[in-house]
Amino acid sequence: MMKVTVNDIARVAKVSQSTVSRVLNNYPQVKQETRKKVLEAIEELKFSPDFVARSMVTNKTNTLGLIVGDISNPFFAESAKIMISRAQEMGYDVIISNTNHIDSNMDHAVQTLLSKRVDGIIISSASRGSNKVKELHDAGFAVILHNSSVEDASSNYVVLDNKKGAIMAMDHLVHLGHEKIAFISGPSKYLNVYQRYAGYQEALEKHGLPFRKTFVYEGEFSYDAVYWFVQRMLEEKERPTAIFATSDQMALAVMDAAAGKGLKIPEDLSVVGFDDMTISSNHYIGLTTISQHKEKMALLALEHLISMVEKKGESADSIHMTLEPELMIRKTTGPPKKIT
Amino acid sequence: MMKVTVNDIARVAKVSQSTVSRVLNNYPQVKQETRKKVLEAIEELKFSPDFVARSMVTNKTNTLGLIVGDISNPFFAESAKIMISRAQEMGYDVIISNTNHIDSNMDHAVQTLLSKRVDGIIISSASRGSNKVKELHDAGFAVILHNSSVEDASSNYVVLDNKKGAIMAMDHLVHLGHEKIAFISGPSKYLNVYQRYAGYQEALEKHGLPFRKTFVYEGEFSYDAVYWFVQRMLEEKERPTAIFATSDQMALAVMDAAAGKGLKIPEDLSVVGFDDMTISSNHYIGLTTISQHKEKMALLALEHLISMVEKKGESADSIHMTLEPELMIRKTTGPPKKIT
DNA sequence: ATTTAGAATGAAAACGTATTCACTATATTT
DNA sequence: AAATATAGTGAATACGTTTTCATTCTAAAT
């Protein structure tokens, strides 16, 4: 089953291959009559153009890269769905790279995406000190940071005001009467979690509450690790009455651990998350959380990337967007029970 | 910033372009000395080979396509993560196409994947009557069906014994004492949901229970649609005491609706799902469900696809694997309350 | 009838690599 | 020392398009 090429149609349509190319690309200056012949030949031989060959010469692949720490985290999966769908509508495909939150994987992913000549890259989980990101940006490559940005201010990004979000969450807990509030962090190499942590601390200070090292988990995004950490923390006599987690995924681990200890939420323990994954709004879960407006964020990142790609060269004004967080109060937070 | 090509290194290393290519591809018959020169030049100019150009001639892109109905469904996201990670380890990238469960999107996705010359395609949500799938297979293209297969028996697939799984779920409920069991289906154009439906019916019959049309939801995979359907169903006086849903995602909608109605699970209503997404095992949710062994299934599909791709031509024995389901009993099922 | 402008087409080059084929240097055998 | 085999290298071609440039055709203008 030989591949049908543009030459084959040229032959059966009795025109040159350039002409075939012209009708493929909808050039105006081809006569109706010959256009018809070509189209018929295409139909007859079931020809469809080879994108690889086309990319060779146009220097465009119509393929984007999406680098993500963990596609199985619903926040990323939901964001990815939005981006992919929109990208497809706009004529692009997307290669997803999953880094498992390992920096070297990300560098490697970038390298192979470049080798495959993707037109642009969205990075959803960039480490804040990443050199690769700066390199890409400095080289004039179309790249946009989504969800988490880097310290070097020059790169393009669409993120949330994470610190503000964290403060909103904390304010909510404090106003309910909580004074012992734990924080479940993630790897602070990510600027977004770093900023949330900063928000946590700032809020404590603002409300005159002491910072306790034992009340914070700082480590991998590991369900199990968080689960065990929380279980242990809840066994202490000086246990927190509320826990603020840096992601909904982690918040679920917290709730899981609390359930394992026989604690009722929110009576015995208040929990607030961050992300607002779809499932969090389920009545059965009803997680109080900070909404990232994931649809908007994903769409903005994607569409800006594509516009960067398409007007390569012209007005390359940089994209610096930070969205407003929103507190979603649901059923996992309430006033603390007076512990005697 | 001009692109560095193989010719550039040939020039600085003072060898021919072919020789450079040879060291790139680790050909044995190149002298240590010249190999060293080339490697140094590569290092110096920071050259990295262009995969597009390479694909042109090798006819291999080291890129796979993954077509999925909805990447935001955790079952698919988790499967995708497994496949992507393993693929990357094996030197492949993956383009994800999201069809939103629309058949024409899938046909279109296949077409563009072919145009981009992916080496193989995994289809996670194939409609059971899909012609495209058969076409692909007949054309000798490397394609494997994952999760849901097609009626035409010739295609390669790795799936679950869905009917058996459904029967296991039903048996569990019946043994607990349930007699009024509703079924939340999805679009029956998917063979896997079709088979689960068949299992539901067969189990009813086996246990001498009547089939009631009003007890089955048959429609889109829509959280909201299921939510409202269940709410309404629970208002009837002849309401079911248990609901079996064709996916965990739908089961969550069921639980959501039940919670909305103030019903306790499992006291007032038992719920069984299907898939065993990670989150289902959360103590706070504790969804009784049928495990699909998603890791095994995903890995098998991916690895078989790659082996098909790599030994193109040789022993193309077909892959027909159906895995055994497993009942995961957790906290959402229990004996029915005697309703008087 | 002749020139001229523009429309329509074809020939050829280019994109960056792998690979075949021919050739040269080196080592082995006689 | 000659003949032969083999290791190492280079020149040229192919992959399937788009695009530039030159050319032919057509119709309008003189």
From TrEMBL, chains A, B:
<dbReference type="InterPro" id="IPR000843">
    <property type="entry name" value="HTH_LacI"/>
</dbReference>
<dbReference type="Pfam" id="PF00356">
    <property type="entry name" value="LacI"/>
</dbReference>
<keyword id="KW-0804">Transcription</keyword>
<keyword id="KW-0805">Transcription regulation</keyword>
<feature type="domain" description="HTH lacI-type">
    <location>
        <begin position="4"/>
        <end position="58"/>
    </location>
</feature>
<dbReference type="Pfam" id="PF13377">
    <property type="entry name" value="Peripla_BP_3"/>
</dbReference>
<dbReference type="GO" id="GO:0003700">
    <property type="term" value="F:DNA-binding transcription factor activity"/>
</dbReference>
<dbReference type="GO" id="GO:0000976">
    <property type="term" value="F:transcription cis-regulatory region binding"/>
</dbReference>
<protein>
    <submittedName>
        <fullName>LacI family transcriptional regulator</fullName>
    </submittedName>
</protein>
<dbReference type="InterPro" id="IPR046335">
    <property type="entry name" value="LacI/GalR-like_sensor"/>
</dbReference>
<dbReference type="InterPro" id="IPR028082">
    <property type="entry name" value="Peripla_BP_I"/>
</dbReference>
<dbReference type="InterPro" id="IPR010982">
    <property type="entry name" value="Lambda_DNA-bd_dom_sf"/>
</dbReference>
<keyword id="KW-0238">DNA-binding</keyword>
